[in-house]
Amino acid sequence: MSEIVKPEYRCPQKDLYSIEETSWENFDGHQGEMGTHKALYTTLYSDAAKAAIAAAKAMPDAQERGETAESLRVELVLEGETCRHNFRKIKSYIISAYPNKDLHKGKFEAAGQLYYEDASNEDWESVNSLNQSGSNYIAANSAALLAGNNMPAGFELAFNTAKTSFAALYTAFKDAEQTSEQTAEKIKANNAIFRIGSSMRNDGQLVFSDRPEIAVKFQFQSIWDLINPPVSGVKGNVKRASDNIGISGATITVQEAGEPAETTETNAAGDYSIRLAAATYMVTVSAAGFVSQTRDGVVIDGSYKTLDFNLVAV
Questions:
Q1: Cys-Cys link to 123, which of 98, 107, 118, 307 (CB 3.0-4.6 A)?
Q2: For the residues of 165-222, what is the DSSP string, one character each?
């Protein structure tokens, strides 16, 4: 039994592509010296590596495949309701065709009643079973159901059309959900570009070991930090102290001692967020009709300090 394919890279996929692209751009700037170390390090080799990165990026990712499945699920919900509505119509035709109430339970179950509850909770197999039972029941009892101007002559066709439509949607949904093979292929492609890039970066660090200012351009972590620096700042919520309802449009003023102030405003829910470098800040919140508040906040690299405020009306 083959093993599940796992990423060999220790970063998010989007960062992997940026790191590898940057690595080969750095290679291009020093191709001559790299080529002296290994003859394979030509511009054509670099072009092929960059083409492989582009090809890996172009492969559908989990989000794209998930979006297809989610869109089909929405359609299944709507089509499933149509099917359940059609079943309820069958029950009404049964009631009219068979006035004896003692017969109803058995006939409802023959038409699919036992599948109805699960079919109402997005159990798609139960919807298929509900449809099949309903179709079979109509075909076997059409004369009785049609008698006395009860079931319309076109209902059986409409019922089976909805049944077929739902089954096709369900098949497409299952196909979209089965993404393991595509996921594995994308991870394999990502691993391949990572291995090629890692080999080149290791050689780059060797070639430029006596020039650290260049060698750093071939270090995975250094490139990662460059394209994805740690994010830090202050965030929180501003509410009315009287009823805890968020205040929209409150002004947040953030200032480090001796530095210019930065400002932002709360959104409709009273939330705010402002990106800042690591330091100690004085955070002041003001809003029309409320007493302003000021608090100190220490921002640490790579994290957000949460400061919530409850303002008292003037």
A1: 118
A2: HHHHHHHHHHHHH--HHHHHHHHHHHHHHHHHHHHHHHHHHHHTTT-HHHHGGG-HHH
